[in-house]
Amino acid sequence: MAYASPGTDTSTDLDTDEKNQMLELGQLASLTASGSGDKSKDKLGQKALRRLAQNREAARKSRLRKKAYVEQLENSRLKLAQLEQELQRARQQGIFIPNSGDKPHSTGENGALAFDTDYAQWQEDHSKQINELRGALNAHAGDDDLRRIVDSIMAHYGEAFRLKGVAAKADAFHVLSGMWKTPVERCFLWLGEFRPSELLKLLASRLEPLTEQQLASICSLQQSSQQAEEDLSQGVKALQQSVAETLALGSPCPAGSSGNAADCSGQMAVAIGKLGTLENFLQEADNLRLQTLQQMQSVLTTRQSARALLAISDYFSRLRALSSLWIARPRE
Which residues does the UniProt record annotate as the domain DOG1 (predicted)? Predict the structure, then answer.
């Protein structure tokens, strides 16, 4: 199908119509001049005028059809561009969208894809739980009802960390990079998720009034979380350095080799063995996150725990919203 650009000018049609009308007028003048009498002149003139009117109407309809066709093409082009933008935005947010014919080629890819799907379902279920909790708080529900919802949400967090543990066994780097999250969320990522100490700092200002004992307990919990985070970060840094030294300072590859994995299989095997410990760091980080949430719950009252879970959910929702606004921001 030939493509007409959105800016197609209809002046060509107008010029053609004018030429046709000029030709008709010329024919009219010629016929009128060659007529033998007044009556024949009138008849010929009326006939020519009718033909001119018919031609003009046909040309008008033709222009309208062409205009509608060009508008249809433009609308199709805009819809295609919009779909391409949405596809690019989804990929930037870490959502896996396979091309036709794409198939995972390894256990790691299968595990990562399964985790992304399971986590999306987890997020949907979590939103329903949070909405239920928000409604219960707004309705001033009793502590028993709130405790049931809070316990359910806490158990659901445990399920998320279990899913991540399974995914880390299949592909630790997928979990480490947080590719299932939005770009802004990934900016604040620490070993595949949030920093427990930062979350406690956020909650301390949102749960007032707190008793002195509660404040002291949260402060102590925050300090112990920071120390554990630092220890894990140092462990990962040491792992990175060790792998780099293995690749850089290992025994030379055989003479004449290209330096690829097949030629230096010994070094690669050692490096892979070291990278295997990354799964342990991810698991320890998730254990720290879950323990921090559980200890926070033990320090707070049931109603404070409910407010804390809402604050956590609202914070991450704003991060996701900020990511969408960042992607959709005007660009010069």
Answer: 112-329
